[in-house]
Give the backbone structure.
Amino acid sequence: MSVSSIIRRAAALLFVAPVSLSLSALAADAPNAGTEVAAAPVTTLSEVKVEGKAPATPTAPTIDEARARAALVAGGTAVIDADSYKNGRASTLQDALGFAPGVFVQPRFGAEESRISIRGSGIQRTFHGRGLTLLQDGATINLADGGFDFQAIEPLATQYIEVYRGANALEYGSTTLGGAINYVSPTGYTAPALSARLEAGSFEYRRAQAAVAGNVGNVDGYVSVSALRADSFRDHAQQDNYRLFSNLGLRLSPSLETRLYFTFVDTESELPGSLTRAETESKPELANPGNISGDQKRDFRLIRIADRTVWTIGDGQTLEGSVFYADKRLFHPIFQVINQDNSDVGLTLRYALDGTLFGHRNRVVVGTRYVYGETKEFRATNVRGQNGVQTDGSDQTARSIALYAENQFFVTPDLALSVGAQGARDRRVRFDNFVPAGETDGDFKNSYGGFSPKLGVLWTAQPGTQLFANLSRSYEPPSLSELTGGSAATPLVNGGQRGTTIEIGSRVEHAIFALDVALYRAWIKDELLSLNDPNGQPLGTINAPKAIHQGLELAGTVKLPYHLTFRSAYLINDFRFDNNATYGDNRLAGLPVQSLRADLSWKGPWFSAGPNVEWIPNGTWIDHANSFSSDGYTLLGFRVSGAVAGQWNWFVDGRNLTDEKYAATTGVIANAGGRDARQFLPGDGRAVYLGLSWSSGK
């Protein structure tokens, strides 16, 4: 079946599914339609709402409040309950976001470093992410130039995750094509007083976490300490990560609360590098010989301090602000040794009013975001993983400021119109303080800017069934690593990446069925593409004049008879150049066209069990010339989990049980010339992970 035919059928599904569900709901309400099934949702809802729980804190809304807010957005959103992934290994972004609609995430070699993309954002990045706004409790995690580190988040120290795709992240101040992902922390009100978790498994994987939480009067706190050690499936891929995540809340008055955050991350990751496709299919556990001889790795230490304050003014008004300071030290031996000291500060202000206008409900959000960062960089030759002769040195600064506003007017209680806009200005500056003999300096001062309007409509056809559509623009400047990441500085890029996106979709939530589906098409101008040569050496960033990103985002859950639940997330990523002078209408390399994750679980009185599958039917191009690609693959797994005495939980998580040899992701180059090249990053072989956790009462 062709991609176009799949998209056409999905468009039909987009509107047929809500109508069918509406008829099903009417049938369920009819006489003799099965009163036991109709009564079940009422019983379930009353059991979920535990009266003994502490009320929500303004700085950390409950998951129900987050879902209610996401349901007001005229576009693709999702809220991921952390409990949904803690019944298995929970160490990578894929573990946490694998079933999030519209999110493609694939670890490079079973590590936290991953390729993560929404709608083709950061399509080529397999490390140090770009194209998304990453937040912790609404405060920016991205550095001033837009880049972010995957290790800056601890999935186990998370209560839930919000995913706002594309321009639907406007109210978080995100301008990017991909949107925003917000990790919401547990607090002293929501987390158990004491908890501990141990995970162990194949490839000498060991992971431990301990957390303590509590509240006294108007003060509450939460502290999580975790450690990870894994030799990994591949040679020269050892990981050692230590993380502390904590927050302290202070209720200053019934309407005013502030929360302080402190994060410490110390991470060391050996880099096994890329193999050829032939090597991936024969000896995927090997490392690239050059990575071993150069002892290539990526180590950094991060200290982050933040504060979020929320003032509930009354009459539906809230005012919130957040500030952060991040200090990062990077030691990164690759084909050269990159040493960086980063210091970043940021401020966010946001005002929201949920009131009435002309007798109708009306929501207004107005905000601003400012981030400034300084980087001192020292580069040297790589001598067996240590600094050799200095080759470069520079002082770099990045600044980003955005102003945004959105108004949602309810024409009727079930029909809302949204209009919003965002303006952004960015600055990238580099001053060379070391210029090798015979070379010129790589100084530059680049400024970028963009204006991103948005129009949207949201219709609640019936309780639990919504249709939405929107038209928006996106804007994204290059990061410092893209401007300076090649063998020499890339002093000028045409400008920031811009795009115009149209989206239609539906959200359905009923007692036994849930569906999230969206179709989108984005016309991208000056797409930022970082190219390597066939040996994997960076050549710098270019702008592709025109490209098309379009696709289908589909996720659903169905409760079946006999205590069975089926869950799936399906993606179509149809990304192409648009009449490019070099590549014509070729596909953009980096992501597979189709991907599917699904699982089937049976829930018994003592444990749950079931199989899962990850399916990539066709491979991924490694070059924009579309001359060489990886192969598709199918991974089968099986998971068993259970609870004992209400305090103990356990799991056995089997992955890639058929021991498939496959490329989890690939590098991206301009033209492979139809020849195999070291651009393939093999995924893990057969593995089994065990976990045991304990938590006390409140």
User: Anything to note?
Assistant: Residues 6-53, 487-492 have pLDDT under 50 and may be disordered. The helical segments are 3-29, 35-48, 63-70, 93-97, 277-282, 289-293, 480-484.
